[in-house]
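Discussion board: Methods & Data

I've been asked by a reviewer to show the raw model output for two of the constructs in my manuscript, not just the figures. I'm not sure how much to include, so I'm pasting the format here to get opinions. Each protein appears as its amino acid sequence followed by a line of discrete structure tokens. Is this the kind of thing reviewers expect to see in a supplement, or should I convert it first? Here is construct A:
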Amino acid sequence: MENEMKNPYVRGIEHVSLAADGKSVRILDQTQLPMREVYLNVATPEECYDAVKKLMVRGAPCIGIFAGYAMAAFAEQRKELDLPEFLMEMKRLSSYLNSSRPTAVNLSWALRRMENVMDENAGLPVPEIAERLREESIKIHEEDIEMCRKIAEYGLSLVKEGDGILTHCNAGPLATSLYGTALGPILLGEETGKRLRVFSDETRPLLQGARLTSYELKKAGVDVTLICDNMASIVMKNGWVQDCFVGCDRVAANGDFANKIGTSGVAILAKHYGIPFYTLGPSSTIDMNCPTGDDIKIELRDPEEIREMWYKEPMALPDVKCYNPAFDVTDHTLVTAIVTDRGIVYPPFEENLKKLFR
């Protein structure tokens, strides 16, 4: 408790919440980090769609939390509609928001939960349905907080004092809640006195590792070293890395998983150097209806993110072709274990992942 009071960043900062009037969602605009901490209230369907699409809100669990609050805000704004019109409009808005990003399963998962609440309470007056949606959105957030705590505890059991951890992209509190997922063991370790060292891949082209992970860890007082993505091999070869912790946006039934582009390369390097490679995420990220990684739809993003984003002038000719997938799929054969809120899952994944949901 003493350490927590000294350093509130150990557990992160509040970056997504339902506004006091219930009609908008308050977010920390992650596109402006780390140099500016700017909060926005988004209320319209278009603003909420853009918040996800433009990565103001990002990280699979955080997107799910945001989607729940967005649906609650839409309902509060539309309480004057008659019941059939209200239900039809809310289903339309859910479908619209779901189209903002296709890869992270938490978005569709949270929206389905909100739709189920509407279906189960379709006989109630609209204001009461809106209130049930508000309650469900808060429950989604609270459940994620508890999941992050459990993931952090399970993950911390895998490492020892002073271990070097390599991360890729951002799976801390900004991408989730409380401790985060892949950063959860590191932040919990800092809070409880089990100090770890972190090498944070910058994560091209959007630099989530540089802008967000190193920001969160530095704020929390963690020993963090920022490296370019193509430096992962040398820090592993030097013996500075004992474990790799990464997040996941969707886990297939066979243990293949999608995460930020470059993750599979880290896994291949870890296999070569004999370093344990873990992916950490809530059980809601596991999609048992998705047989393998080949069935995961990969989002393609704007080529300009490669050519000119972050630069004063473009770093490539305008007619140079660019391929810019947001994610890649890491094969289950490269994964040491999948750390979830329900426990640590080891191979064979196809068999053991099923046990989580029995």
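Construct B, same format:
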Amino acid sequence: MPRHKTLVALPCKLSPGAFSGERVIDIKLANGQIYTSVAPRHFCWNASGKLVGEREPSTEVDGMVAARVTDEIDENQVAVEIPDGEVIAVDRGLVSDRPTPITPPSRLISSM
């Protein structure tokens, strides 16, 4: 059972975003509706559980997105925070362990 602030992964549909570093995510909510947003590429995994590569996916595919459990709603649902900052309700059965750790990309800071 997920605990408060547990780092998890949620199944989603992944597709290319408008920018190379983002992916469009479609997540099934507890009420059956689909929540669509964007997430940084380094918060997404492909169906094999590997962090999404720079050029993947090229079309819509099954994948996973990073999330954090923020609250237990009831025995069937949990509230999770997703990369866009929203907190959404999902079925508890969709929540799984993260397949790999997340390491944000390095950023070089140049002196001006």
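Answer (T.O., handling editor elsewhere):
This is acceptable in a supplement if you add a one-line summary per construct. For B, something like: The beta strands are 7-16, 22-28, 34-40, 44-46, 61-72, 77-81, 87-91.
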